[in-house]
């Protein structure tokens, strides 16, 4: 119950932060900034896949409805990412950690494992964003710079956020 | 703790939920006009309006210099146009005495307002983006101000977009910077026209396609709206021609440097075409007649 409340607070703060970022920071069509994947990435390991999917859908839908982009884009790609979270997590997490209540963050997993975990899932998210946007593979070459640039910038942003906000508090 | 279920059942439920949520999102994407309606119709716009007002005002204040310059340029253009008409009016005044004396007074002929095919409704942009492949704008005029679906939106810098959804006080505009959008445009004075589309690479350039290969043009030629759609009047300058290449040996594909900077645009005008109903009816009649 307590976890539900604190999760809701984190959810709302991520949503507000994401809306502020997408409404007021604009670097043109080659770069989109997202921070909401961090919320799904760091949900506790003990959460069932169904719960993670529902949180992800809520976050995506919130962003879609409150931001004047293409409706449904964020929820589709975030749900995709949330669905693949468990397999990726089971690849990276150590035995025994899966049953505990840990939050898969930088403090718990260590920098390199967290980098790998976040990198794989963020790549899945970005690839689905770019493909759903253009709905085909024909623009793949044209979309590649957008994909790579956004991925690297968002990865950096995500690491900084995780380090700056959560790392110290959880130590 | 709930009773232990088999992990396979859990996995199946997760898979089903995943499919349901994905399908819902994809339906939302393919049916986005419906969801756009929800977005501008609800209380969200009120909240957003009050929240972002302070930031928007601050942004506006810092961009006053650019706004002033744009207004001055627009003013100059209008003044030159006015001089032209004034001269024309004087000419007709001297030449033809048939015009009633009371209709020719000082500034020229009293042209009735109903003569103009296009009317402009001024509006302010409430929300805007340039960092997606599908960019949209929200303007603060809606059905209450006479805005309807499928009206063109222009600014002093050229074409901005086309109205997609209208609520009572707001309208949702598909920006020219949207890969699904196209505007009929022509190059220079040659009159060769084709669809102007955005390729999603750069907020400052668009691509003019399907210009026949034999058409001669120079880098730096101005690209105007063609006036062949009911949305925009003819000869609105959009941008200048840049690099071009020939596609499949038959037509040019020209990169157009847009006059409009979509990041700083604040004030727009919605084009209301009084003849659009008539024109659409006519083309519909023709289509049904030819079948």
Distance between the termini of chain A: 23 Å
Strand content of chain B: 25-35%
Silhouette of chain A: globular
Integer average pLDDT of chain B: 80
Number of helical runs of chain B?
Answer: 5
Mean pLDDT of chain A: 84
Query: What is the helix fraction of residues of chain B, given as a range?
Result: 25-40%
Can you summarize the main beta sheet of chain B?
Answer: 6 strands, antiparallel, barrel
Percentage of β-strand residues of chain A = under 5%
What is the multimeric organization of the chains shown?
A: heterodimer
Rg from Cα of chain A: 16 Å
Sum up the overall morphology of chain B in one term. Answer: globular
Fraction in helix of chain A: over 70%
Number of helices of chain A: 8
Give start-end ranges of low-pLDDT stretches of chain B. 101-107
The run of helices and strands of chain B is: HHHHEEEEEEEEEEEEEEH
- Helix/strand/pairing category of chain B: alpha+beta
Summarize the structure in short.
The complex is a heterodimer of chains A (171) and B (291). Chain A has 171 residues and is an all-alpha fold.
Topology:
The complex is a heterodimer of chains A (171) and B (291).
Chain A: H1 2-24, H2 37-41, H3 49-66, H4 73-83, H5 85-92, H6 106-109, H7 111-134, H8 140-170
Helix pairs in contact in A: 1-3, 3-4, 4-7, 5-7, 7-8
Chain B: H1 7-30, H2 32-41, H3 44-62, H4 64-95, E1 104-105, E2 108-109, E3 118-128, E4 134-139, E5 152-155, E6 158-166, E7 171-178, E8 182-187, E9 192-197, E10 205-212, E11 222-225, E12 237-247, E13 251-258, E14 267-273, H5 276-290
Helix pairs in contact in B: 1-2
Please give a structural write-up.
The longest helix of chain A has 31 residues, at 140-170. Chain A is globular, with a radius of gyration of 16 Å. With 171 residues, chain A is mostly helical. In chain A, helix 5 (85-92) runs antiparallel to helix 7. Chain A is built from eight helices and no strands. Chain A has helices at residues 2-24, 37-41, 49-66, 73-83, 85-92, 106-109, 111-134, 140-170. Helices cover 34% and strands 32% of the residues of chain B. Chain B is globular, with a radius of gyration of 24 Å. Classes of the chains: A mainly alpha (171), B alpha+beta (291). Chain A binds chain B through residues 22-24, 26-33, 48-50, 53-54, 57, 60, 64-73, 75-76, 79-80, 83, 86, 132-134, 139, 142, 146, and chain B through 10-11, 13-15, 17-18, 21-22, 24-29, 32, 35-36, 38-39, 44, 48, 52, 55, 127-138, 172, 177, 179, 199-203, 263.
């Amino acid at each position: 119950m307590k976890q539900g409340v604190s999760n809701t607070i984190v959810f709302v703060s991520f949503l507000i932060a994401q809306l502020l970022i997408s409404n007021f920071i604009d670097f043109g069509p080659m770069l989109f900034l997202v921070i909401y994947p961090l919320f799904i990435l760091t949900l506790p390991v003990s959460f069932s896949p169904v719960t993670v999917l529902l949180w992800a859908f809520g976050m995506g839908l919130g962003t879609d409805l409150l931001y004047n982009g293409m409706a449904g884009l964020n929820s589709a790609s975030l749900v995709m990412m949330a669905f693949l979270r468990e397999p990726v997590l089971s690849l990276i997490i150590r035995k025994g950690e899966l049953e505990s209540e840990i939050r898969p963050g930088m403090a718990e997993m260590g920098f390199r494992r967290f980098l790998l975990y976040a990198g794989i899932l963020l790549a899945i998210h970005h690839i689905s964003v770019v493909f759903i946007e253009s709905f085909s593979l024909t623009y793949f070459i044209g979309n590649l710079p957008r994909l790579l640039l956004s991925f690297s910038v968002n990865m950096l942003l995500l690491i900084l956020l995780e380090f700056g906000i959560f790392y110290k508090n959880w130590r | 703790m709930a009773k232990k279920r088999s992990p396979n059942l859990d996995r199946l439920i997760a898979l089903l939920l995943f499919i349901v949520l994905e399908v819902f999102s994809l339906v939302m994407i393919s049916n986005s006009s419906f969801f756009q309606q929800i977005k501008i119709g609800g209380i969200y716009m009120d909240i957003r309006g009050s929240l972002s007002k302070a930031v928007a005002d601050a942004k506006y204040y810092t961009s006053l210099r650019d706004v002033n310059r744009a207004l001055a340029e627009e003013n100059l253009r209008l003044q030159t146009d006015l001089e032209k008409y004034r001269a024309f009016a004087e000419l007709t005044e001297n030449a033809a005495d048939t015009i009633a004396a009371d209709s020719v007074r000082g500034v020229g002929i009293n042209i009735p307002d109903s003569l103009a095919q296009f009317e402009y409704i001024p509006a302010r942009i409430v929300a805007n983006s340039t960092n997606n492949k599908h960019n949209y704008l929200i303007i603060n005029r809606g059905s209450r101000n006479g805005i309807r679906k499928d009206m063109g939106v222009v600014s002093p810098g050229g074409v901005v977009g086309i109205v997609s959804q209208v609520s009572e006080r707001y309208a949702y505009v598909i920006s020219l910077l949207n890969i699904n959008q196209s505007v009929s445009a022509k190059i220079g004075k040659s009159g060769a026209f084709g669809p102007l589309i955005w390729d999603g690479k750069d907020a400052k350039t668009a691509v003019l396609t399907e210009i026949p290969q034999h058409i001669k043009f120079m880098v730096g030629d101005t690209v105007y709206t063609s006036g062949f759609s009911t949305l925009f009047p003819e000869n609105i300058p959009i941008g200048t021609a840049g690099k071009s290449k020939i596609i499949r040996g038959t037509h040019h594909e020209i990169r157009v440097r847009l006059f409009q900077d979509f990041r700083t645009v604040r004030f727009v005008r919605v084009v209301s075409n009084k003849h659009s109903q008539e024109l659409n009816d006519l083309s519909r009649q023709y289509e049904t007649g030819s079948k």
